[in-house]
Amino acid sequence: MTNEHDQLSRRGFVKGMAVAGAAVCSQGILPSAVSGAGFPSAAGRARPEVVAIYCPLWHRYDHMDSWHGYGWNEWELVKTALPRFAGHHQPLHPSWGCFDESDPEWSRREIDLAADHGIDVFMFDWY
User: Fold this and answer.
1) Do 50 and 35 share a structural domain?
2) CA gap 16, 72 in Å, rounded
3) 122, 5 in Cβ contact below 8 A?
4) How far is residue 29 from each of residues 18, 24, 34, 54, 78, measured CA to CA in Å?
5) Are 69 and 23 in a shared domain?
6) What is the pLDDT of residue 102?
7) By CB atoms within 10 Å of each CB, which of 3, 73, 75, 106 scores lowest?
C-alpha cells in the first residue's frame, strides 16, 4: 500500500510545505506580493490555486493520550458538544462518521474528494 505522501504526489498535491509562514512550492517561495483584494496573484493562471489547510487531529496519538487518556482525539469534542442557545443543534454527526485520518485508505478518500472538487493543494498544519 502506498504511503500518504505518495498518494498526495500522485494526485498532484505535493508541491511544497509551509515554512515559517511562507508557502514553498515547486518554483520556490511563493511571491509575497498580494493583489489589492489581499489574495495572492494568480500569476497568469485561469483561476487561483486553491489551498486547503489541513490540521490532522482526527486520530489517536501519544500527546493527547498523555493529556486526556488513551484513545482521545478531536472527535470527542464533536461527540460531546452541548447546545448553547435555542436552535443550536448539537452534537452534530459527521456524514462520513468519526474517521481516523491516519489510515492511508481514508487519506485516499479525502484526496480524491478534494481533487474532484477543485482543491489543488493541502497545506498540513504539522507540530
Assistant:
1) yes
2) 30
3) no
4) 10, 4, 14, 20, 36
5) no
6) 84
7) 3
- pLDDT, mean over the chain: 74
**CA distances from residue 51 to 37, 83, 88, 89 in whole angstroms, order as listed:** 17, 32, 30, 30
Residue 70 structural domain: 60-100
Output the pTM of the full model: 0.54
Q: Are residues 113 and 94 in the same domain?
A: no
49 and 64 part of one domain: no
pLDDT of residue 66: 94
**Pair (108, 52) in one structural domain:** yes
Q: Which residue has the cell 506580493?
A: 33
Domain count, the chain: 2
Q: Which amino acid is at 99?
A: F
pLDDT tens per residue, range 65-107: 999 999 998 899 999 999 999 999 999 999 989 888 888 998 8
